[in-house]
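Encode chain A's predicted structure.
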Amino acid sequence: MSRIYYRDKKRGGRTWFIDYAYQGRRIRKKIGPSKRLAELALKDIEIKIAKNELGFAPSDITLEKFFEEFDNFSRVNHAPESHRRYRNIINNFKIFLDDRRAIKLSQLNPRLFEEYKIFRREKPLHKKIVAKTNTVNMEVKTLRTIFNYAIKWEYLKENPTKGVSRLKVTDAKKPRFLTKEEIRCLLDSCGDDLYPIFYTFIFTGMRLGELLNLTWDDVKLDKRRIYVQKKDFWQPKTGERIIPMSDDIYSLFEKLYQERKPEAKFVFPGKNGGRLTIRLRERLIVVARRCGFDDVTKIHTLRHTFASHLVMSGVDLPTVQKLMGHADIQTTMIYAHLAPDHLADAVNKLSLDD
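Encoded structure for chain A:
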């Protein structure tokens, strides 16, 4: 038998709960001060039980066991950078769960993830600062991906993050990008070893992992295309895509191909021909300081430079999204402020004049 009931608060008022049985277990959930909301929640549970759509499968397991299983899977199937990102976000979520009673997958629900968003925006975890809105949105999106595996592995029937919306971004900084003069200074100051690497970042918009794992099998000089594609040892962050070569990039890659060692596998190899291992970020910081712009501290700035100059040249945002490999157009929208003149030209094309 299912029911709703309440408990009186010490300072007045009531807290309503729902109580129901499912798969031989008694389950009680706190709803809040609204009796009507408790009635609706219980009705929803009863309908889901009748349709066998409660949201978790009979093989329910503890969160700790599932996270351990996912971590082992991620270590083998994802790039090291992705594995570290998954692990860090899971650790953040575990901290959030410390003072709550969610122990099993079946106890997760959308309301819990709404609370997680508030928790991450209000409680500092790292470096004594709270998470930015974009960070919170990224973490919820990543958790949604993680729990999709729970569905795939038949631990859940429905993703507990379903219906959890993105926070409205109001604290995002405009991306730092290099001006044409700064690009010239950077390339003139970086030396022969870094020049082709930084040049490729700036004029293809590739991610760090994409460039480090780029092999000659991914480069089709005859088609003037670079293929960002998965390999046995690495897979792209947001899926495969094609980057067309500009004339300058084509000339650079043709030169690199002619100068490559016969056994070279990677386009930008390390000393022994394997994957490049030098600390590119630290090298970038040194070169940028040499040029006088100390605020350039991330390789991602070069990727921002590619996208920013595309938008300022009049390239539409959906095209930029495809070239950058953004899974969500909202990510590309951070460059929208660079296109006011382009947008004005677009609306001015609306006219009844022949």
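The CA atoms of residues 64 and 94 lie 9 Å apart.
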